[in-house]
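Repro:
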Amino acid sequence: MFTGLVQGVARIEQVEPLGVDGGVRLTVNAQGVPGFAAEVGDSIALNGACMTATRVDGSRFSVDVSGESLSKTAGLAAPGEVNVETSMRLGDKLGGHLVSGHVDGIGIVQKMVPVAESWELVVRAPRALGKYLAYKGSITVDGVSLTVNRVDDVANGCDFSLNIIPHTHAVTTLRNLCAGARVNLEIDLIARYVERMQSAPRD
């Protein structure tokens, strides 16, 4: 489990094809992530997608990403910056919201514009995820826990608006987003279970 409070920005330095199912091995440099520490077998979220460390050498680590995972996520197929969060431990402070690291869909950025001292980020989610988005509800975008400010159902999806404060803009990859960018989305766990309870057959 994670909290959606990104520890810092790391960089994918190498993408090595595995040749099995289209998967790859990523070598990630987390030198710039404050307090980063990991061991082989640890769970590490990269842009919100939970991966298992297969090799750790100080601040560098490797993860194997299956072809299936690559097809369901964004930002993991090429060198570049990624948001990093190591899994929470029992007793850790929960400052964001409960995040599983399982990407539910890909969103498309509609706009990222400055508003006063912050930025407004508008993302279009797949229509299937629209029912899980609610005003003042939680959403994870590229591993970052955020609060939904507005929800608009549209013909080909669901647009939701977020306020990105200066701190979040400075310490995450969200600062690099622009219209057309693809982002990983994870819906709130509570919304997932509420929907299941309402739709399950009743005796």
